[in-house]
Each structure stands twice: as structure tokens, then as C-alpha cells.
Specification:
This protein has seven helices and eight strands, in the order αββαβααββαβααββ. With about 190 residues, it is an alpha+beta fold. The chain has one domain: DHBP synthase, CATH 3.90.870.10. An eight-stranded mixed sheet has the order 1-2-6-3-5-4-7-8, covered by helices on one side. The chain starts with a helix and ends in a 10-residue tail after the last strand.
């Protein structure tokens, strides 16, 4: 994993397993690399994945009351397959969400490999590993075949931890006017709390 972590730090595009589907990831300030590799529409935002909620809160902006609600939801569902779309702070590069730089999706994955990598790189701009419009790739071999320039983990690095993946993208919930709007239903059921 040291090679992959060093690659991220130097601005390279990488891929690693998560608790849902494998991620393509890069430093937030290099987000354009993901859009180019995936041939992804600028209308589709990237997700900021972090090793802990504390690593992600500086990237969002809300009132003290809102932050408390978001922290309660995070405490209940993170690490896990839930992406929260929240108002973005000035720390988020506009390239992560070119169509609407005022919001950012944030998530802490329930994957020891992903958490190890993120704890050494800081939060990363992520999305599923696949060309836009195609199904998410599930194995490192498939990812290497489709994205030969992307750094991946060696099979021995993945086997050590035996990643548990559900193969279903995360639930995406957007904070809108004081309540949650489900943008994509995944494995996590979110109570519509205010």
C-alpha cells in the first residue's frame, strides 16, 4: 500500500476496494483526472471520501444545529454505505462538482483497506471504477484492464485484509431545506429525520 499512498500524494489516479464497489480516487485538487479517465459528464459530482467524520467536516458548511444533525446521522451510519450531500465549504475544489460547487457528497467507507489508505492520504475525490454509463468494475484485474494508467493494489495487499464488499453503490442523501432527500437508494435505509 505504500506505493499507492505515495502515488496519491504525488497526484496520481488510484483505485482501491471499498465496502460498496471499488473506487477510483485522486487528491481533490486533481479531480479533473477522474473526469478524463471515466469520460464522465461534468454534471456528475465526485464524492469526498475520508477516514473519519472529523476529516470531512472542514469540507462542509452549515449552522451549529445542522452540523449536530449531520454528526448524529454520521455516528449512526459511518463507517458505511451512506453518502451525505451537504453544503460545501471553501475547502472543496470546484472541480469536484463543476455543475454545483455549492454542495459536496461526503462518506466514510466501512472498509479497512480504504480507511488505511485514507488515513494516510487525507480525504480523496472518489467515484466508482468504470467508464461513465457502464456497470461498476468489481475486481482489481478488471480495473487494471480498463484503466492501465491507474495505480491499484497488488493482489497480496488485498488478500491480507479480505475486503468485504456488497457490490451496491452507497445510498445518497441530500440535505435540503432542513431534511433529507434520497437521491439514490442503496443498502442503507435513512430515516427521514429533520
Amino acid at each position: 500500500m505504500p506505493t499507492l499512498v505515495a502515488g496519491v500524494r504525488s497526484g496520481e489516479l488510484v483505485s482501491f476496494p471499498t465496502d460498496t464497489v471499488p473506487a477510483l480516487a485522486v487528491r481533490p485538487d486533481r479531480s479533473e483526472l477522474v473526469y478524463a479517465a471515466k469520460q464522465r459528464s461534468q454534471e456528475k459530482p465526485l464524492i469526498l471520501m475520508g477516514a473519519s467524520p472529523e476529516a470531512l467536516w472542514p469540507f462542509v458548511s452549515g449552522t451549529a444545529t445542522e452540523l449536530k444533525i449531520w454528526q448524529q446521522v454520521a455516528q449512526q451510519h459511518w463507517p458505511g454505505a451512506l453518502t451525505l450531500v451537504l453544503p460545501a465549504s471553501a475547502k472543496v475544489p470546484a472541480a469536484m462538482n463543476p455543475a454545483d460547487p455549492t454542495t459536496i457528497g461526503v462518506r466514510v467507507p466501512n472498509s479497512s483497506i480504504a480507511l488505511f489508505i485514507l488515513s494516510h492520504t487525507g480525504p480523496l475525490a472518489t467515484t466508482s471504477a468504470n467508464r461513465s454509463g457502464e456497470p461498476p468494475l468489481q475486481t482489481m484485474a478488471e480495473i487494471e484492464a480498463q484503466f492501465p494508467a491507474v495505480l491499484t493494489l497488488k493482489p497480496t495487499e488485498v488478500e491480507v485484509v479480505k475486503p468485504v464488499t456488497i457490490g451496491v453503490p452507497s445510498t445518497v442523501a441530500k440535505w435540503t431545506s432542513g431534511s433529507w432527500e434520497i437521491l439514490r437508494q442503496g443498502s442503507v435505509q435513512l430515516e427521514s429525520c429533520r
